[in-house]
Amino acid sequence: MKTTQESIFSSKTLTYFLQLAETMNYTQAAQILGITQPALTQQIKKLERTVGAPLFYSVGKKLRLSDAGYTMLNATHSIYNVLNKATDEIQQTTSATQGSINIGILASIEDHVFEDFAIKYYEANPNVQISFHMLTRKEIWERLENNRIDLAVMYLPDESIKNWKPYQSKKIIQDELLFITSDPKQAKKKRIKFKDTISEPWVMYPENYYLDQVIKESYKNQLADLPTAVARFTTPQQIYRFVAATGTNTALPNSFMVANPANDDLNTVSFEPAIKFDLNFVFRKDKDQIPRIKNFLDEFDNYLRTEDYISRLQKINQN
């Protein structure tokens, strides 16, 4: 017969509970987990019977965590933290030149420099398997929390992240959002005020993407109306192609424009004031002490020390 602990901490129980706590929607959680809604409901009820209290309650159509649910959520996060720490400590005794490294890259980032580095890193470290995953911000944080990726390449600051305690970051470069337009009147400008960028429709990132939120916050801070979006795409390449074909406006990172310079019909202008943010490696604390992760980060530092990030992007464009 299973003990209470075995019933609570079975292989799938905590995963089901965490996913429901994340989405607060049985249908959505079941779809993500790849099970039926009745099966998920049955597992949650079984967990509630085991702990002796309801973990969720409904207010109208909205699901909420009960006090017991919050206690279980905190306990579950603590369990994962202990397991992740144990995994990291074990891996710190492993080789620097063997094993695997999983890297999550924000989908809106120009990734050519990382691809080029991966080729050179493989040539020097053929026994280390590097896997790149192009992810949304939400997917990156979920995988960091569950220890499914070792490093994340993403933009900071990110106000949506409330708990930074388990993580640390390593700056790669400072980047800047640039206004992209086909309006010939803007061609000679070095800077443009926010209120002067909204006369034509925009192409933007999906709502809740990091750069979409940066744009909204910047316009709000300047007391300017938001641009009208006529299309939204997940990658800068898609946005750029749409703008070039339709004569609409957008804003794209300088790092992307260096690697993909505007054609004769498009003009690139800095905002006034400038919209700046940092490109960073983000990882769990002490993850950089694992030999193969430390070696990877050290080699990346040497790679940029030989030739800086922007210069490498310019060289990629020339090739």
From TrEMBL:
Gene Ontology molecular function terms on file: DNA binding; DNA-binding transcription factor activity
GO cellular component, one term: cytosol
Pfam families: HTH_1 (PF00126), LysR_substrate (PF03466)
Transmembrane portions of the chain: none
ATP-binding recorded as keyword: no
SUPFAM superfamilies: Periplasmic binding protein-like II, Winged helix' DNA-binding domain
Domain of life: Bacteria
Domain HTH lysR-type: 9-66
Keyword annotations: DNA-binding, Transcription, Transcription regulation
PANTHER family in the record: HTH-TYPE TRANSCRIPTIONAL REGULATOR YBHD (PTHR30419), NITROGEN ASSIMILATION TRANSCRIPTIONAL ACTIVATOR-RELATED (PTHR30419:SF8)
Family: Belongs to the LysR transcriptional regulatory family.
Name recorded for this polypeptide: LysR family transcriptional regulator [Lactobacillus pentosus]
Organism field: Lactiplantibacillus mudanjiangensis
